[in-house]
Amino acid sequence: MQLGKINLNLLSALYYLLQEQSVTRAAEKMHLSQSAMSKHLAKLREVFGDPLLVRVQGQLQATPKGIELKAQVAPLLDSVENLLHQQAFEPSLCQRTFTIATSDYVSEHLLPKVLGGIYQQAPQLNIELCNWDHTTNRLLHSGEVDLGMTLPPRDSTELHATTLGTDHLVCLMHQQHPYLSIAQPSMSDYCRYPHAIITTGADKNSHIDRHLSQQGLQRQIQFRASSYPATVQILSETRFILTLPAKIAKQLLKQRPLAMVALPFEVSPFDYSLIWHHRNHHDPAHTWFRQQIHQAMT
């Protein structure tokens, strides 16, 4: 038998014909005319190469083939029904593993409270946190990372993003840094002192360096780290300048005796977003998970 010879209407007709063993009653169940059901029966007989129902003492009875099919068609239709009408996602039963890529600052200071609320609703959920770096975009496409939290993607037809907030860049440095004694620091002053940069998260440095390059200037980057805590510790011990998002800088000021100042040149604010691949866009569990994060962080 070929699948092209049968459809869901014929399978439903087969079910009701074998269940009712009556063309009239089967037609009533499917809200069809008796002649339409008779045509369905004729087609089914052709498809299965068997009468399926035969008249015995004035009543229709299933043939051995019909009896065999009757035991199979009901669970088949149930499976189709479940396929077409998926049960609503139930967080308390979810055992999925979600991998989130972001900076160590977000992982340490922002996500714990958010994820705590999620775990209350989905106690069997598994969550893995990793740093966003130059490989993460590829991992989102391959499915090894489920969500990213960083700058929105550029020119991607396969990634979706929803904005979590807006921020701007500032400078963070030691409270005794000589840069702070300059009344109106210039771009040259900004470049005169050594810099530290954070290498995780989306690239927030290249557009700064391009802007400086257009003015014939270049930063001297002497320290690179993937960790905010390590970099903040370095700032406490050196005269480096760290350029970073203002919201992160304000939180770090609570931990160390540092100073935050504006950049000596204008840079446009930027959005930071929750990012996922199109393959997960309609997945019920993934949709619920990212909605919980978005609601908690906006």
TrEMBL record:
Pfam families: HTH_1, LysR_substrate. Signal peptide: none annotated. Residues 6-63 form the HTH lysR-type domain. The keyword Repeat does not apply. Gene3D superfamilies: Periplasmic binding protein-like II, Winged helix-like DNA-binding domain superfamily/Winged helix DNA-binding domain. GO terms for molecular function: DNA binding; DNA-binding transcription factor activity. PROSITE patterns: HTH_LYSR. SUPFAM superfamilies: Periplasmic binding protein-like II, Winged helix' DNA-binding domain. Keywords: DNA-binding, Transcription, Transcription regulation. The keyword DNA-binding applies. Belongs to the LysR transcriptional regulatory family. This is Transcriptional regulator.
